[in-house]
Each structure stands twice: as C-alpha cells, then as structure tokens.
C-alpha cells in the first residue's frame, strides 16, 4: 500500500456531503470530490489518522485497495482468490466484511459476503495451512465490499466501529439523533461556538454535546479507544500520538452558554449521564422546562432542536407544531431557530415560512431541516436597524 498517496473514500449521510468536504479541505485533504453520501480525497497515512480522529460528519473512512469486474460468482471468487491477502492482514488476525450491493448479477449481499469470506479463508489455508478467524463484533481487520452492477471494489475500513459512535453515549433515551447527523445539522445551522446555543427539547443531549464539542474545537473522537487502522501492519503509533497531541493543543475555551430544556425528567437524566461521560458538566446547563412556557434568556441565540414526530414518538397534542410557532413568535424575538421533522404536514402548522429547507435523513426517515428567522417587527425594519 502506497502510504504517501492514499485514495480515500469518506462515507456520510445524504445532505451532509458539502459540510464533510469543507471539513476535509480544512484538515488538509487533496483532490476533494463530492459524491453521493460520500467524499473522495487523497492524503498520506498521517492525514488518514487525522480525519478519523477529527472529522465530525464522517461515518466511516475507507481505503479502496482492489477493483475488478465480475460477471458471475465463479469469476468473483477466482479474482478474489488471486489477491495477496497477506498484504492486508495476517493469518493470526480476525476479520469481518461489510457489504453494499447494487447488482442484477449479485442480488444477495449475504451470499457475496460469504463468498468473499471463503476466498480469504481458502487463500490462507492454501498458502499457510492455517485459517484466520471471522469475527463480526470486534474484528482486527475490517473489509468493505462494494458491488455496483459488475464493478467490484474491495476497501480497507480504517475506522472500525462507525464514527458516530463517539464514546460518550451511555444512555440512549428515546429516539436519539445520530451524533454525525447532529453535528452536521449544527454546522448547516452555522454554529461555530460564538454566542449562545439552546436546544429546547434536548432529549438525551446529543445536540448539546456536539454543540459543545464544536464550540471548544474538541476532536470528534477524543473519547474513542480504538480505530481499525491501529491493527494494520504499517500502523505508526508515534505518528498517531503526535497527531492527537497537535489536535488537542487546539482546544479552546468557550465563553458562551449551551443550554438544554426538557419536560421529561427521564430524558434529562439520560442527558445528564451522557454529558458527564463527555466531561461537559461545566459547559452544558440543563433545565426542567416546558419550551412552550419559556422566554428568550440568552443574547445572541441560536436554537437547534429535534422535536418529536409521529414515526419516532407519538404526539397526542394536535396543536404541538402550532405551539412551536406561537412560542417562536411571542417569546423568541430576533432569534435564528432550526428544527428537523419528517412530518411535513404538521410543520405547516408552525405558521411561519421557513427561510431555508434542507433534505436530510434521520435513519430511514426522510426529513426536512428547517430554518426560521424571528424578527421583532418586520424584516424590513430589522434590516434598517442593522444598517
């Protein structure tokens, strides 16, 4: 493997590609290209370590190592059998395979995954008279198999566990938002740690923690214990240690406020547990408060939240979204607010025209991330005041 000029593919969620590309450019990626739910770039081994440790909107980071065309399962197996697998793992290491298949020829991802597993095991058996172990939960080496029609791409997964697993979530709460999606939403909303932040329906606290990490410029994986690249034969522990040290030296003090409201004591308990795990008790403030009875207390203020919507949590109150709009208009003048929802009919009841709409997916749910600008008086008057 040429460790100076690695071709790298970074997976993300739909709608976050541009945010991820900007992150990768800032971290020093070369030839950055935006793809569907992914960003491609080039860099050396140190850069690979750096993006695994720092990129907030990356889900997994792959290094494509082999590409070929196969028109039937025999060709598929034979071409896999010709790969020098000892270049990527030893017979003493366990391995696992993730697969994504979009093909008329290879219709079942489970079948081709088993076929690839057989090819690797048979290769080691023939060459070394020993078989490596397949370990699905915590393998030493993780491969990614991608088939698009007849084109087969084999990649090394440098991350291991998906990168949304930050290491601070100890209590799930009900219907938590994915950490990568939360960070992407905050960056789309323009949160940079200047000013104050409010999540008025904070649930188990993911948006609050991600907001604090951005505000302090903490690396996304500061709490992670292990990456898959640490099991590679070419792993450079000193280099990774230096990269972490340089990155941690950039952490900054945050002088604003990050506040979360919720009316559910169980959710606040979950949030508190996660905030403690993230060592953010001094940065994030939690309050038992009903958003609909709250008033703006922080100036300036950015609000981002993930209100309940029917597919995740049932809402008994038909006027729920109308109350959100009323609270915006009455109690939060001169505020920028963003919310995510899959209930596109219900959000119309907010009674305000969103100034931006961004299509995102929360799991398999298609959602809209909506921006509302509340002005005291009219937009025109507000513009005059600003001038």
From TrEMBL:
Enzyme class: transferase
Alphabetized UniProt keyword annotations: Methyltransferase, RNA-binding, Transferase
Gene Ontology MF terms: 23S rRNA (guanine(2445)-N(2))-methyltransferase activity; RNA binding; rRNA (guanine-N7-)-methyltransferase activity
The THUMP domain, residue ranges: 47-158
Source superkingdom: Bacteria
CDD domains hit by this protein: THUMP_AdoMetMT
Keyword RNA-binding: yes
Keyword flag RNA-binding: yes
EC number(s) stated in the UniProt entry for this protein: 2.1.1.173
PROSITE patterns reported in the protein's UniProt record: N6_MTASE (PS00092), THUMP (PS51165), UPF0020 (PS01261)
Protein name stated in the entry: Class I SAM-dependent RNA methyltransferase
Species name: Chryseobacterium carnipullorum
Lineage: Bacteria, Pseudomonadati, Bacteroidota, Flavobacteriia, Flavobacteriales
């Amino acid at each position: 493997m040429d460790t100076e000029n690695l071709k790298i593919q970074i997976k993300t969620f739909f709608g976050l590609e541009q945010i991820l590309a900007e992150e990768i450019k800032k971290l020093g990626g070369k030839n950055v290209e935006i793809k569907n739910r992914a960003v491609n770039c080039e860099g050396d081994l140190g850069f690979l370590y750096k993006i695994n440790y720092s990129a907030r909107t990356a889900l997994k980071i792959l290094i494509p190592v082999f590409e070929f065309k196969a028109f039937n399962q025999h060709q598929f197996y034979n071409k896999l059998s010709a790969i020098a697998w000892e270049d990527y793992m030893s017979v003493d290491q366990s391995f696992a395979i993730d697969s994504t298949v979009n093909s008329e020829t290879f219709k079942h991802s489970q079948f081709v995954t088993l076929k690839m597993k057989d090819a690797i095991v048979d290769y080691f058996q023939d060459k070394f008279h020993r078989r490596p172990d397949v370990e699905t939960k915590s393998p030493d080496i993780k491969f990614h198999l991608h088939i698009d029609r007849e084109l087969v791409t084999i990649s090394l997964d440098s991350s291991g566990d998906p990168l949304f697993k930050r290491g601070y979530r100890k209590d799930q709460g009900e219907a938590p938002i994915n950490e990568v999606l939360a960070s992407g939403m905050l960056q789309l909303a323009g949160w940079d740690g200047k000013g104050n932040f409010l999540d008025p329906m904070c649930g188990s606290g993911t948006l609050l923690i991600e907001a604090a990490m951005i505000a302090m410029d903490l690396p996304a994986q500061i709490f992670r214990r292990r990456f898959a690249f640490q099991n590679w034969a070419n792993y450079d522990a000193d280099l990774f240690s230096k990269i972490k040290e340089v990155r941690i030296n950039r952490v900054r003090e945050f002088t604003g406020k990050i506040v979360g409201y919720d009316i559910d004591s169980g959710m606040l308990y979950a949030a508190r547990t996660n905030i403690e795990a993230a060592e953010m008790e001094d940065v994030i403030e939690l309050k038992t408060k009903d958003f609909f009875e709250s008033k703006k207390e922080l100036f300036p203020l950015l609000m981002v939240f993930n209100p309940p919507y029917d597919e995740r949590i049932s809402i008994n109150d038909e006027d729920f979204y109308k109350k959100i709009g009323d609270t915006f208009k009455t109690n939060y003048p001169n505020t920028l607010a963003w919310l995510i929802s899959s209930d596109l009919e219900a959000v119309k009841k907010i009674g305000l025209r969103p100034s931006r709409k961004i299509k995102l997916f929360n799991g398999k749910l298609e959602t809209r991330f909506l921006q509302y600008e509340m002005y005291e008086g009219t937009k025109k008057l507000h513009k005059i005041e600003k001038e």
